Amino acid sequence: MNKLASCFLRHGAPSAQSFKSYHVQRSPSLHSLQRRSVSMPRSRTADHAATAAKATIAPLVNTQGADVTVVSGTSFDFERYLSAKARAVHDALDLALQGLPCPEVLSESMRYSVLAGGKRLRPALAIAACELVGGPAAAVVPVACAVEMIHTASLIHDDMPYMDDDALRRGQPSNHVAFGEPTALLAGDALLALAFEHVARGSAGAGVPADRALRAVLELGSAAGVGGIAAGQAADMASEGAPSGSTARLVEAAAVSGAVVGGAGDGEVERVRRYAHFLGLLLQVVDDVLDVTATSEQLGKTAGKDAASGKTTYPRLMGLEGARAYMGELLAKAEAELDGFDAARAAPLRHLARFMAYRQH
Question: The whole model's pTM is what?
Fold first, then answer.
């Protein structure tokens, strides 16, 4: 096992106390649970001899406490799980962005945004979906990294003056503020291209069959372009009648791609897709609600931007309480899609949905 692989085992128990072990049961009301948050890792020095394509992930169930703890088949330590995956994805991204054959300022700009932190929810979703279907550990690492590259590219472009014009992202100056608009534009473009190169190279290196890698590329490409982020941003700028759903599409693609490279059958893929569709909508509704209710300090970006720009959001369409009720409906629908899977393997996805619903930033 290489050093990057072993970091999944070493970092199983962070000191933060933002989550306790939950019990897998019927989802309670959104207002009946205390909302909590998980602190994400900052940049760390990785082993230069390792490669992102060969990174592996710890097994889902490890009763010795390495990554996931299952007690009597019902209790799941989500804090440890999410923190371990976030740290390992961060290290894999750090490795993937080292030694890029491009001007130093472009490389710095790309690393600045990708390694700035964030909750790493989309990569964790891809990993959990692969584990759900019993996929090999190494198979999902390139997909997890690619999902975060695509997501970060969209944030860089979204923040630019001719789009949402936001000077703050993840608690620090937006990429175009730190590096200038031309470099930021190129950094977003480069990350988008690198994401697909990384899936292709990494999947081959991890022994993922070519047909599975191709299906993952198709899912991610659709989510990044006319079937997702690009189309959604255009709709947002036009303030067309309903929320665009671009956030939901990338979430769906992350989960489906993880399941596909993990070897899921067609029926399993479709159940994962439905779960992730509801989860992606939930994430968008929560983002819209937090834009109204949270502060800029809590969000790490400028609060109230959606309302100020007249963007069509769920609170605007449904009212704040209506949007919160819809969050509860989406959470219940997402969890229902997991009922046919093994309970222990489904636990990360079940609690990931709850985390997305109850988060405060």
Answer: 0.78
